């Protein structure tokens, strides 16, 4: 099989990149059977999938971190898409977890701020994928928490 012309001439091959940015659901998405693994397998040799998940983070902290992960002139043109998957920590009950809790209005404003920032560095809104927090089955969650002590 003949190599494509760009390869045979020694040019650097650059795949578009997909950046997964979120909390622990994103961080652990590359565990066996995870959604990040699924995407990476489906996009193999078509797109590089970068996991930028941060366990315990909420949107308040994420919007401060985002400019350190994706900066102007740092490959925005090669970024196929960025996922923003936050909300599980933001929705923690304020009285039980005030450190992670983010009020709903601030949560929405933080997401808008991150989308605006990405747009300002060349990643247009049509390449930003907002993923909603998953539903919570309280009985199963309580059982899992009790099992962990």
From TrEMBL:
<dbReference type="Pfam" id="PF13472">
    <property type="entry name" value="Lipase_GDSL_2"/>
</dbReference>
<dbReference type="InterPro" id="IPR045136">
    <property type="entry name" value="Iah1-like"/>
</dbReference>
<dbReference type="GO" id="GO:0003847">
    <property type="term" value="F:1-alkyl-2-acetylglycerophosphocholine esterase activity"/>
</dbReference>
<dbReference type="InterPro" id="IPR036514">
    <property type="entry name" value="SGNH_hydro_sf"/>
</dbReference>
<feature type="domain" description="SGNH hydrolase-type esterase">
    <location>
        <begin position="20"/>
        <end position="142"/>
    </location>
</feature>
<protein>
    <recommendedName>
        <fullName>1-alkyl-2-acetylglycerophosphocholine esterase</fullName>
        <ecNumber>3.1.1.47</ecNumber>
    </recommendedName>
</protein>
<dbReference type="InterPro" id="IPR013830">
    <property type="entry name" value="SGNH_hydro"/>
</dbReference>
């Amino acid at each position: 099989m003949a190599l494509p012309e760009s390869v045979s001439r020694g040019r650097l091959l650059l795949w578009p990149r997909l950046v997964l940015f979120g909390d622990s659901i994103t961080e652990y998405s590359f565990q066996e059977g995870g959604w990040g693994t699924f995407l990476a397998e489906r996009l193999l040799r078509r797109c590089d999938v970068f996991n930028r998940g941060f366990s315990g983070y909420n949107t308040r902290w994420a919007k401060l971190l985002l400019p350190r992960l994706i900066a102007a002139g740092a490959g925005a043109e090669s970024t196929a898409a960025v996922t923003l998957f936050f909300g599980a920590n933001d929705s923690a009950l304020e009285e039980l977890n005030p450190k992670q809790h983010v009020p709903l209005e601030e949560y929405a404003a933080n997401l808008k701020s991150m989308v605006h920032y990405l747009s300002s560095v060349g990643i247009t809104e049509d390449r930003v994928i907002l993923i909603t927090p998953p539903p919570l089955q309280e009985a199963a969650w309580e059982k899992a928490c009790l099992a962990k002590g």
